Amino acid sequence: MIFDIKMIQGVYEALPDKINRITQVLKRPLTLTEKILYTHLSKDEELKDYKRGEDYVNFAPDRVAMQDATAQMALLQLMNSGRKRVAVPSTVHCDHLIQAYKSAKEDLNTAEITNKEVYDFLTEVSNKFGIGFWKPGAGIIHQVVLENYAFPGGMMIGTDSHTPNAGGLGMIAIGVGGADAVDVMAGMPWELKMPRIIGVKLTGKLSGWASAKDVILKLAGILTVKGGTNAIIEYFGEGVHSLSATGKATICNMGAEVGATTSIFPYDEKSAEYLIATDRKEVADAIKAVRQYLQADTEVELSPEKYYDRVIEINLSELEPYINGPFTPDAANPISEFAKVSAEKGYPQKMEVGLIGSCTNSSYEDMTRAASIVKDAQEKGIKVKAQFIINPGSEQVRYTSERDGILDVFEKAGATIMANACGPCIGQWKRETDNPDRPNSIVTSFNRNFAKRNDGNPNTHAFVASPELVAALTIAGDLSFNPMTDPLLNDKGEKVMLKEPVGAELPNKGFGVDDLGYIEPVADGSHIEVNIAPDSQRLQVLHPFAAWDGKDITALPLLIKAKGKCTTDHISMAGPWLRFRGHLDNISDNMLIGAVNAFNDKTNSVKNPFTGEFEAVPQLAREFKSKGLGSVVVAEENYGEGSSREHAAMEPRFLNVKAIIVKSFARIHETNLKKQGMLALTFINKEDYDKVREDDKISILGLSDFRPGRNLTIELLHSDGEKDTFEVAHTYNHLQIEWFKAGSALNYMKN
Ligand code: SF4
């Protein structure tokens, strides 16, 4: 099946004219990143040379993808947008909520029972709004997108950090929060700070045990977890053409681990082969006329330092396999040094579980390369020593791997084939262990290895490596095993070496599948009723927030004056709260529970002005709300940094907080607050933060003349009768002021 071919052809038809205009205005050769970004400027956005790392720019992405955990709140908001159908092709993928425990079939059955109301809701809303729906078991969002939707030169956003996977097929694909997805699905522009561009030149060719995964594991060591922040990583050089499309996707996927906005590869023969193998020859055909626009200009490749903000070179011929970890993906260890590092640091030497899967490494090529190692071990009479778990990336990969005898190889080695889903990668793993307090080591082909991520156990040392290396270490059961130098004992007691991995980039007999697991939405979903049980604990209909009453805000109590860092995690924690992501009332019980109260240095302990007692922040906010009172939150610098999480803006709005007054905002969160109809204000004199006292009554004056560039006034009435008055700034433009007046951006759009 080929999806949205008309839209894709339209992008290519418009490409030559657009690129010519861009070149005329920018008057310089273009990187691939710039070609895609500038051809996706929102229609009202001026075409000019935007400053990288500084200017905020509105874009018009071609499509949206959502995974089942984040889709819930996004779709609940979309239901309030007044739209009948999404403005751009969009999809929902049921992959995060399936727990890996026994086997694919049993776990899928369990997930369908435990998550029934969420799945039913997602199915109905998708059908109503024209969104493609991928059922539980269809596969992991990014693998499914790569196989079906990613197209070179396109631009997409996805409500998941590893959306950049599609960069392997030449698409600018960026992970965002649900509110951004709603904007794009509702036909609004989507804002991004014009990213810096890091050029990574690949030379040489991979060989032996080195794999595409090792490129990004090495790069993670160079850039560290923050080195890619606000940057797009663009790969170039002759080395890129030796990598398969799925190998490139692996590299782009893990670009998220260095904080990159996204990563991208140019279009080449491998991309064409992958498009054709995945039934998209029409896309490959349409590209023939525009191929030169799907790579950086020649001048950029010749003088990369002139056009990229930073250039890094990696010689694939010299690359050795890496094992990164534990606890952070940028702890990069080439395998030749790992045994020494491991002994020095005292990592648990017994390798207890090997896991292959995740959106990072679950392609057909990954499966075949890992299986070649297992098969070689079987033929040499070597037993597998550790537990072995495989999660195929999609039903297409699973079906084809089964047909081609690959799953059989794993199963004969004692591996459990789990569902085509995220599973252990996102902590959805019911791991059975004899003693959770014992430090232990596992090796995965996933992308993240933070403490507790896979099995919730802080004693688990998780390392990430290529699937072939995971297979080798699982066979050896020894964390320090180096298959390039170390022999293993076979069942006759002989020392034997494992052969180097071999695999197939694409299946010789082509991909096969019985049922992709896709449900096409009906052409007109306007008649569809979306049912949410009123007593549901996981889903709740969103009621539009009330419009502004036209008056100044007067004499509000302070909810909390937060001290120090206040990220979106402090404002709306993840972890156990994930299950309430579709229920605003329930999840609001985590509002600001991580923020430190400046008056007592405690978290989640604020003074109730009516009783003088200290209580939880959400509890006090609910009391204010029940009395018909709003409240105010005061905080310090960079309030709301971290993941773009709309819950962090929706929860205060829901619990009747009227304004957040801070020394500075993280820009994305500031915009999210504006979208929800909140007042996001900043101290002009940062010392005014110190004037706010615990028992103050706070008024916000000047709203009747709320306009861009005009400050508002804060009046603090202290409990001793004294007053402090000062001005605060805001960054609302005309449109955003309309959002405030309407009660939210969605209300405004609907009106
Ligand atoms: S496999 Fe892991 S990294 Fe990929 S989407 Fe699922 S949870 Fe995220």
Automatic annotation (TrEMBL):
Any single GO CC term annotated in Swiss-Prot or TrEMBL for this entry: cytosol
Full protein name: Aconitate hydratase A
The organism's place on the tree of life at top rank: Bacteria
Domain Aconitase/3-isopropylmalate dehydratase large subunit alpha/beta/alpha: 34-477
Organism: Dysgonomonas capnocytophagoides
EC number(s) given by UniProt: 4.2.1.3
GO BP term, example: tricarboxylic acid cycle
PANTHER family assigned to the protein according to its UniProt record, in alphabetical order: ACONITATE HYDRATASE B, ACONITATE HYDRATASE, MITOCHONDRIAL
Pathway: Carbohydrate metabolism; tricarboxylic acid cycle; isocitrate from oxaloacetate: step 2/2
Family per record: Belongs to the aconitase/IPM isomerase family.
Catalytic activity: citrate = D-threo-isocitrate
Alphabetized UniProt keyword annotations: Iron, Iron-sulfur, Lyase, Metal-binding, Transit peptide, Tricarboxylic acid cycle
GO MF term set: 4 iron, 4 sulfur cluster binding; aconitate hydratase activity; metal ion binding
InterPro entries: Acnase/IPM_dHydase_lsu_aba_1/3, Acoase/IPM_deHydtase_lsu_aba, Aconitase/3IPM_dehydase_swvl, Aconitase/IPM_isomerase, Aconitase_4Fe-4S_BS, Aconitase_4Fe-4S_dom, Aconitase_dom2, Aconitase_mito-like
Every Aconitase A/isopropylmalate dehydratase small subunit swivel domain range: 558-685
Cofactor(s) the protein needs: [4Fe-4S] cluster
Matches recorded under SUPFAM superfamilies: Aconitase iron-sulfur domain, LeuD/IlvD-like
